[in-house]
Task: inverse folding
């Protein structure tokens, strides 16, 4: 006789062992539950613009649906969008990709997933700078690879040191994943760092390079974004330059990502896309064309607002005892260190042993959701998104300050 009925349930694959939802999602779910209880929760945990999608994109989508653009779209993307992406790469990134070197996918996330799936064999290694966007190591592990972490410490401005990368390279290294401007630190890697990195990678032709440039338009203080493939054209045939509409055009729900890269890799990625999701929603693609071609003034005004909020947030954090705050030059996050808060007791009587405890305390006592640095591989830090309305952000700053001011021994 079976001990319990559960013993006969069909099982999950071993791929799912140890697979957890990213902490960014976990914190957002906790915040949602408190909100449902009627608590005045402010969430600065999610990485998405608070602005509406530019009207020009919505109008184009509506018209596209009325015009009957509702059939299965081409797997690699609609010609009009590929042409708009080709033009964007040429004008903004000094990159000349032919149309068959460009693919459209369901977000930059799917670009990375398809690329890893098309290339990783079991136990292949992927170099990931730390702190990292949460999905990078999860995807690598999910597909049988091994993440090799290279720490970019705060003392070095969270910049990637090329000689640290050199030390992490082995004969099994298949990819290095680069992300500038960075989620979560907001750091924009300067040209000299990218050139030094290119010099190292030049000597290791077995390594693919993923350049995640999704925050390229959100840069401040005169910082400049460089595409590695333009800085090191001799490496272009192994660089995948990824981008998308989610952040720049406030279109995360439309699910449009795109990439330029070598034809051999793109063809392999398309085989995966063709047998999983198929092409991206045709209506979203039309909206993305309109955004790429006609939304530059909306992008400029969103950028002005992000810059103002960035200054508000950094100013507040730098007045707080126990918090160290690097000034980010890109994206819409700050990544303050909370080392001096470890061991303190909150007003609610909670002992802070980690950045997770800090985030949980801040959420439960002041109803502000942020994400602990542990989710991004570097503790003790917090990732705070300032993609929120100015008044909401002011209130959040007030509550964060109150929480920190009340910490005691
Ligand atoms: C660094 C980075 N890359 C990629 C993505 C995914 O973007 P998409 O919405 O295009 O899938 C995100 C989203 O948070 C991100 O932060």
Result:
């Amino acid at each position: 006789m079976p001990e319990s009925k559960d013993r006969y349930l069909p099982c999950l694959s071993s791929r799912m062992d140890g697979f957890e939802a990213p902490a960014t999602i976990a914190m957002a779910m906790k915040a949602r539950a408190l909100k449902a209880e009627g608590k005045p929760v402010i969430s600065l945990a999610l990485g998405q613009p608070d602005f509406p999608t530019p009207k020009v994109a919505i109008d184009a989508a509506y018209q596209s649906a009325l015009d009957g653009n509702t059939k299965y779209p081409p797997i690699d993307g609609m010609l009009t969008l590929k042409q708009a992406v080709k033009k964007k790469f040429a004008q903004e990134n000094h990159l000349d990709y032919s149309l068959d070197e460009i693919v459209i996918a369901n977000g930059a996330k799917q670009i990375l997933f398809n690329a890893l799936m098309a290339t990783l064999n079991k136990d292949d290694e992927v170099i990931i700078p730390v702190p990292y966007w949460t999905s990078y190591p999860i995807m690598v592990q999910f597909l049988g690879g091994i993440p090799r972490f290279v720490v970019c410490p705060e003392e070095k401005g969270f910049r990637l040191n090329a000689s640290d990368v050199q030390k992490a390279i082995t004969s099994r290294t298949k990819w290095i994943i680069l992300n500038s401007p960075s989620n979560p630190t907001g750091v924009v890697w300067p040209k000299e760092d990218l050139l030094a990195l290119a010099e190292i990678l030049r000597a290791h032709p077995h390594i693919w390079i993923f350049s995640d440039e999704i925050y390229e338009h959100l840069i401040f203080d005169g910082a400049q974004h460089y595409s590695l493939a333009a800085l090191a054209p001799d490496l272009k045939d192994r660089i995948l330059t990824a981008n998308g509409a989610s952040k720049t055009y406030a279109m995360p729900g439309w699910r449009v990502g795109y990439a330029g890269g070598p034809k051999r890799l793109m063809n392999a990625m398309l085989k995966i896309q063709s047998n999983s999701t198929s092409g991206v929603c045709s209506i979203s693609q039309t909206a993305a064309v309109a955004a790429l071609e006609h939304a530059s003034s909306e992008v400029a005004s969103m950028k002005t607002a992000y810059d103002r909020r960035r200054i508000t947030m950094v100013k507040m954090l730098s007045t707080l005892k126990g918090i160290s705050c690097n000034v980010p030059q890109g994206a819409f996050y700050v990544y303050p260190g909370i080392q001096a808060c470890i061991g303190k007791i909150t007003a609610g009587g909670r002992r802070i042993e980690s950045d997770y405890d800090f985030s949980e305390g801040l959420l439960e006592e002041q109803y502000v959701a942020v994400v602990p640095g542990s989710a991004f591989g570097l503790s003790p830090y917090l990732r705070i998104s300032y993609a929120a309305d100015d008044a909401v952000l002011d209130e959040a700053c007030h509550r964060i300050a109150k929480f920190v001011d009340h910490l005691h021994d």
Notes: The chain has two domains: 5-52+298-404, 70-295.
